[in-house]
Amino acid sequence: MNENLSSNNSDENQSRENWTKRAAEKWNEENVTEENFKQIVKFKARLLNAEIKNIDSKYYLQAVKSLQDKKSLYIQGKIGCGKTYFAAALIRDLWFSKRCTEEMINRGKYPWQNFVVYHDMLNLLQELREIYQGISRNVESAIIDECSNCDILFIDDFGIQKVTEWNLSIMDQIINNKYNNYTQLILTSNIAISKVAKNMDERIASRISEMSELIYFDRDDRRVG
Ligand SMILES: Nc1ncnc2c1ncn2[C@@H]1O[C@H](COP(=O)(O)OP(=O)(O)OP(=O)(O)O)[C@@H](O)[C@H]1O
Ligand SMILES: [Mg+2]
User: Fold this and answer.
1) Which residues contact 127 (CB under 8 A, 6 or more apart)?
2) What atom in ligand 1 is closest to the CA of residue 50?
3) Looking at the predicted structure, is the pLDDT value of residue 4 above 70?
4) Residue 222 has pLDDT above 80, yes or no
5) Whose CB among 72, 101, 144, 204 lies 3.0–4.6 Å from 212's, allowing a Cys bridge?
């Protein structure tokens, strides 16, 4: 937990503490290891380095409150502004501080195991495409099931994929399943949700809009200058 935040609204902090305590009872301490975290999130090295202490507490508070209110997150901003870093740091913080909702606890015997699934949008579609073209259709549906059933699905770079019928049908299945199961999404994107509706698909955009809180990163590219 980011210590900068301890002076914030005490009611909010109190309810967060209760939340964590109940989760902590259910979430076996011995499972909360770096090794399990790596295995579950399958983050690339760069994402594993992301730490919440480097994040502006304004965004962090907004994100935690939204997730606790069972909302998904749509993290939007310019190229290189830090969206992926933020989402990865947030997931690390949630996991290690065992922050989950009642629903997450009630859903599974082992909340730590199906807590989060991470995919880069392009890689996910590519992986599914290869499987689809091969013979193992049940692997394809296993990946879609895993995305659909996990508590939090983190899709990085949402919106840069080509708009093809096949891509849209995969995204529609996943987003619709999250929507219907009341499970959560963390999406990072360079484009506004209105543009997703216009250029990609209205059904998908409509569901994401209803489910999500917009976190807008108002800063320039960190990679240059
Ligand atoms: N809070 C931070 N503290 C330290 N480094 C950061 C922070 N946020 C981002 N970075 C670094 O800045 C660079 C850009 O960040 P990141 O990849 O998260 O941007 P992005 O918004 O996801 O970009 P894109 O739109 O291209 O996907 C990376 O090298 C990342 O490690
Ligand atoms: Mg990114």
Assistant:
1) 143
2) 31
3) no
4) yes
5) 72
- Cβ(154)–Cβ(116) under 8 Å? yes
What ligand is nearest to the CA atom of residue 155?
2
Considering every ligand atom, which ligand is closest to the CA of 77?
A: 1
Measured between alpha carbons, how far is 44 from 168 in angstroms, rounded to an integer?
A: 26
Question: CA 114, CA 69: separation in Å to the nearest integer?
Answer: 19
Residue 213 phi/psi, 5-degree rounding, is -100, 135
Summarize pLDDT for 108-141 with one digit per residue, the tens: 666 677 888 999 999 999 988 888 777 666 677 8
Mutate to test the pocket of ligand 1, among 84, 93, 154, 190 (most ligand atoms within 8 A of CB): 84
Question: What tokens were used for 211?
Answer: 């489910």
Interval between CA 188 and ligand 2 midpoint (Å): 7
CA of 55 to the centre of ligand 1 (A): 11
- How do residues 200-211 score in pLDDT, each as one tens digit? 999 999 999 999
* DSSP code for 2: -
What's the rounded Cα separation, in Å, for the pair 92 and 52? 8
CA distance readout (Å), 40 to 70, 71, 175: 21, 22, 21
Which helix (H) or strand (E) segment is 171 a member of? helix 165-181
Sign of the CA dihedral running 200, 206, 208, 213: positive
**Tokens encoding 214:** 């917009």
